[in-house]
Amino acid sequence: TVTLEALRHWDAAPHNPAKLAAKGVRFAITTRGLDNPKDVHARLATAVERGLDANTALAALTTTPAAMLGFGDRLGTIEAGKIANLTVIEGEQLFDEKVKLREVWIDGKRSELKEFKPPEVDPAGTWEMVTTAGDQKIPTTLILEGDMNNVTGHLLVQGMRIDFSSIEVSGKRVEFVLPGVSFGMPGDLEFTLEIKGDTASGSGTSPMGPFTIKGSRVRGGDPEVRR
Question: Is the pTM of this model over 0.85?
Fold first, then answer.
């Protein structure tokens, strides 16, 4: 049973940041107390809808906490010499519900956030591929199992079996990541394959540089889905 007091709190709480700002109170926003830290942006979006200035909301996540914690010389703003933790968006402002996240930079390392689309292909089966890096061509076998909404699998290359760290089907693309430690290198190997029936081609990146990959499905899969 939810009490009347709790209902009043839920209704009034989103107004509190705007009230604090109107009184000139300096405050920071954190994820403390949230069951899911990812909810912080949705909560702040609601606060903006209830009167909090969007720039003040952004400062409460960035410059204000950095200054309060004594890290203002290293964090909070985009300046030479500061830690390069950045979020790149497409839209008017971060708390717009239609905003699209495009890139995240952690300590200067860029990660592109690709737009997810409902799966349009079923990649299950055995794929014989060739990975090309510079003038080196490496025979590669992909084993993909499950259905388009829940794909798992592994890669066979140079006598090694390497399980995917992650794999996802988006539209007609299959995107997967392999741990670089399996090849004796730091970081990850990231692949993007475009599926057309029983053929696939794409590209990727590794700590050693970019590469391309292409080949065809030799076993498995559903012909009706692949058509």
Answer: no
